[in-house]
Design a protein that fits this description.
Helix content is 44%, strand content 19%. It is of the alpha/beta class. The protein folds into 2 domains: 5-149 and 289-300 and 302-310, Rossmann fold, CATH 3.40.50; 151-285 and 323-344, Rossmann fold, CATH 3.40.50.2300. It has a 7-stranded parallel β-sheet, with helices on both faces. Strands 8-7-9-10-11-13 form a 6-stranded mixed β-sheet, sandwiched between helices. Helix 9 links the parallel strand 9 (236-240) and strand 10. Helix 3 runs parallel beside helix 10, helix 4 (90-102) packs parallel to helix 5 (116-125) and helix 6 packs parallel to helix 7. Mean pLDDT is 89; it is low at 1-42. It is found in: Cell membrane. Residues 51-349 form the ABC transporter substrate-binding protein PnrA-like domain.
């Protein structure tokens, strides 16, 4: 595999200064057109800009990287990555995406809904570059592909598994930040639990509230929140919290209880290997294929655009079965498979809000 180019991100002040200089005449308006032409000139490079937590979160960002890595190997494209900065502004995201597009990467993919406003601005300046936006449909343009998932469906299956695995009748849900996207995870999970065991209790907690999105990057806070739910009787905890979810998994596993991972199959994540035996399952989102398919569409000369949805019917979301312990629980696997079939057959409609 070729070495991935790491693009250094700038701080808030420097990003704002750079944008200010451009707006005040540092570059002529004609430069935007030139940049667009440059970006369209290369069809063998692709880039991803990571969400909060960056690569190494063992979850969402790592799933996006897996798609880029596959494209490097199979399509021989040159990959570029850009990391977020702590407490960054909208100007930082705009600067980051602009730099990636100006360097000729196509497509440029923003990992997470937080990139929506920035992609809207930058896509207008680079009309010949395809931009991928994961987990958001609020921003549209002819050169934007909205890569979205039915997270609530996979979470419903996790709820079924949690209700069947629980001995106490109390399970937990931890969300990184209380935003509509993460509420989908909570809604599906809670519905799956309650449909399986109406008497079950679901403890729900969010680590931060917008505009503070740091809840996705605080393992210690995830760990502390999980400990609180364990103390309240939860014996299965599902986290949709990015890097903070790793802390929740650690606390849950150390307590000898079941953890349910998210986005990637966290049983197979090297950074969580110490706790893998207690990772019952994970709600998976096929972010790797979404990233790879977008890159391939550009390479094929037929760039994806508009809403590209991945649901349970196309295995775009699902429930991992890597843990032998999960596979051995016939009652759980049977209940999950039935629920999956009923959702696909539209016998069950999963809620997208609690």
């Amino acid at each position: 595999m070729r070495r991935i180019t790491r693009i250094a991100t700038v701080g808030i002040a420097s990003a704002a200064l750079a944008l200010s200089a451009t707006a005040c005449g540092g570059k002529k308006s004609s430069d935007s057109t030139a940049s667009s032409s440059e970006s369209a000139g290369s069809s063998k490079s692709a880039a991803i800009a990571y969400d909060i937590g960056g690569r190494g979160d063992q979850s969402f960002n790592d799933a996006a990287f897996a798609g880029l890595e596959k494209a490097e190997k199979d399509l021989k494209v040159k990959g570029a990555e850009a990391e977020p900065t702590e407490g960054e502004s909208e100007a930082d995201k705009v600067q980051r995406l602009t730099e990636l597009a100006r360097k000729g990467n196509n497509p440029v993919i923003g990992v997470g809904f937080a990139y929506a406003p920035a992609i809207k601005k930058v896509a207008e300046k680079f009309p010949k570059t395809t931009f991928g936006l994961i987990d958001d449909t609020s921003v549209t343009a002819p050169n934007i592909a909205n890569l979205v998932f039915n997270e609530e469906q996979g979470s419903y299956l996790a709820g079924v598994a949690a209700a069947k695995a629980s001995k106490t009748g109390t399970v937990g849900f931890i969300g990184g930040v209380e935003v509509p996207l993460i509420k989908k995870f909570e809604a599906g999970f809670t519905q799956g639990v309650k449909d399986t065991n109406p008497n079950a209790k679901v403890l729900s907690a969010y680590l931060t509230q917008p505009p503070d999105f740091s809840g996705f990057a605080k393992p210690d806070l995830g760990k502390a929140t999980a400990k609180g739910q364990l103390d309240s009787g939860a014996d299965v905890i599902y986290s949709a919290a990015g890097l903070a979810g790793s802390g929740a998994i650690e606390a849950t596993a150390n307590a000898g209880k079941w953890a349910i991972g998210v986005d990637s199959d966290q049983y197979n994540q090297a950074g969580l290997s110490k706790y893998k035996d207690k990772i019952l399952t994970s709600v998976t989102k096929d972010v790797p294929d979404a990233v790879y398919n977008l890159i391939k569409s550009v390479e094929d000369g037929k760039p994806q655009t508009g809403e590209i949805r991945y649901g349970l019917d196309k295995n775009g979301v699902g429930l991992a079965d890597s843990n032998p312990a999960y596979k051995s629980m016939a009652e759980i696997t049977a209940a999950v498979e039935k629920a999956k079939a009923d959702i696909i057959a539209k016998k069950i409609t999963v809620k997208t809000a609690p």
